[in-house]
């Protein structure tokens, strides 16, 4: 398959298509649906392509003992971890309300399905693509069932090895051609020395037929922009309205001004990446006409003379003559007219000399 696919309706991923930017709202909405709606609008206003949440069916994601574990940190929304997670979990009806709001705002809407039952609900919701969080990347029964749904998939790779990612690729590919893998390090916030952006290039070599992206948890935008310069076709970043809010993800999230700047910087880098074809561009013509050099006569050269290299030199000349890179093609050829000392050697005065080569 080509190195691109339709991740969302009318939105291709990979190839020369623009980087797809996911604003990961996650559970930074504090359990308040009105805040969640504001964040969806914020993601749209900042230029992101997609607003993404995290959906769990808690009894399927956690066992009973995990839900009953005391949870008394400053980030807690309840006495137990289950109470904490229930506070942050939206109902199915609330998800439908958020999806409707995203449609009205004009931004793609999806969520990470944090367990198999959550994936079933998101499939019923007809999200444009499934996001697989790093915690489920090595959950192969989950991966296989999710891939069989037939929706495009974006798979993060935090906490995994290359060997595991090869298995992930093979497992998903068997059932679903439309997926991407994101380089990711699962630490919040993420230090620069642990980002390992070079893995993007390794993924591109290992999996050349799928788009590769980056899911970042670092502070600021520089590293994410660098990921785009390295070829990331999807960028996912956590977002928040206020980094000081309660919750473990806020510190590693982007506030609106930062998300706006990230989108601007990514689009600038995409313009700067260009086509990869090296040639003289139209914008360079003015400089070329002013400073481009030509072959000129170092001495007076009478008509009929066979040219040698010591008769020629290179200068900025008026009019422009033979290009410097073609000087050796002149050696051994005969001039058909007198050429004055310090005069441009133009193609028309050299016998059997073709048109000037393009720069």
Describe the structure.
- The chain is α/β, with parallel strands linked by helices.
- The protein folds into 2 domains: 4-273, Alpha-Beta Barrel (TIM Barrel), CATH 3.20.20; 282-349, Alpha-Beta Complex (Type Iii Antifreeze Protein Isoform Hplc 12), CATH 3.90.1210.10.
- Helix content is 35%, strand content 17%.
- It is built from 13 helices and 12 strands.
- The strands form 3 sheets. An 8-stranded parallel beta sheet has the order 5-4-3-10-9-8-7-6. A two-stranded antiparallel sheet has the order 1-2.
- Helix 10 (222-229) links the parallel strand 9 (212-216) and strand 10.
- The longest helix is centred in the last third of the chain and has 18 residues, at 256-273.
- The radius of gyration is 30 Å and the shape is elongated.
Structural domain count: 2
Summing up helix and strand content along with how strands pair, one would put the structural category as alpha/beta
Question: In what order do the strands lie side by side in the largest sheet?
Answer: 5-4-3-10-9-8-7-6
The fraction of residues in strands falls at 15-25%
| E-strand count | 12
CATH class category label of the largest domain: Alpha Beta
What is the typical, i.e. mean, pLDDT? 95
Note the run of SSEs as H and E. Answer: EEEHEHHHHEHEHEHEHEHEHHEEH
**CATH architecture descriptor text of the largest domain:** Alpha-Beta Barrel
Gyration radius (Cα, Å) is 30 Å
- End-to-end C-alpha gap: 36 Å
Oligomer: single chain
Alpha plus pi helix count: 13
Q: Which runs of at least 5 residues are low in confidence (pLDDT < 50)?
A: 355-359
Helix content: 25-40%
Approximate shape: elongated
What does the largest sheet look like? 8 strands, parallel
CATH third-level topology of the largest domain: TIM Barrel
The CATH homologous superfamily name of the largest domain equals: Aldolase class I
């Amino acid at each position: 398959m080509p190195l691109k696919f339709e991740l969302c309706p009318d939105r291709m991923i990979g190839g020369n298509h623009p980087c797809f930017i996911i604003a990961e709202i996650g559970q930074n909405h504090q359990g308040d649906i009105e805040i969640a709606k504001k964040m969806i609008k914020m993601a749209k206003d900042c230029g992101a392509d997609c607003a993404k949440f995290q959906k769990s069916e808690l009894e399927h994601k956690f066992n009973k003992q995990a839900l009953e574990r005391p949870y008394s940190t400053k980030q807690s929304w309840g006495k137990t971890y289950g109470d904490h997670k229930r506070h942050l979990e939206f109902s199915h009806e609330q998800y439908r309300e958020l999806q409707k709001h995203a449609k009205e705002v004009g931004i793609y809407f999806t969520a990470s399905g944090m367990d198999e039952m959550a994936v079933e609900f998101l499939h019923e919701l007809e999200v444009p693509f499934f996001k697989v969080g790093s915690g489920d990347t090595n959950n192969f029964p989950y991966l296989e069932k999710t891939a069989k749904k037939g929706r495009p998939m974006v798979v993060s790779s935090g906490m995994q090895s290359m060997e595991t990612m090869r298995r992930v690729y093979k497992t998903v590919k068997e059932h679903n051609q439309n997926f991407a893998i994101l380089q990711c390090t699962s630490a919040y916030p993420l230090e620069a020395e642990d980002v390992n952006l070079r893995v993007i290039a390794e993924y591109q070599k290992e999996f050349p037929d799928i788009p590769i992206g980056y899911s970042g948890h670092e502070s600021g935008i520089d590293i994410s922009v660098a990921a785009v310069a390295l070829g990331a076709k999807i960028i996912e970043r956590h977002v928040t309205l206020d980094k000081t809010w309660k919750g473990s993800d806020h510190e590693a999230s982007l506030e609106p001004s930062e998300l706006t700047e990230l989108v601007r910087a990514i689009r600038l880098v995409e313009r700067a990446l260009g086509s990869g074809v090296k040639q003289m561009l139209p914008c360079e013509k003015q400089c070329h006409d002013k400073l481009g050099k030509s072959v000129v006569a170092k001495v007076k050269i009478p008509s009929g003379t066979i040219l040698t290299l010591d008769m020629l030199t290179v200068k900025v000349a008026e009019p422009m003559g033979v290009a410097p890179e073609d000087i050796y093609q002149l050696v051994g050829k005969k001039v058909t007219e007198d050429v004055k000392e310090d005069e441009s050697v133009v193609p028309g005065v050299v016998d059997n000399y073709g048109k000037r080569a393009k720069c």
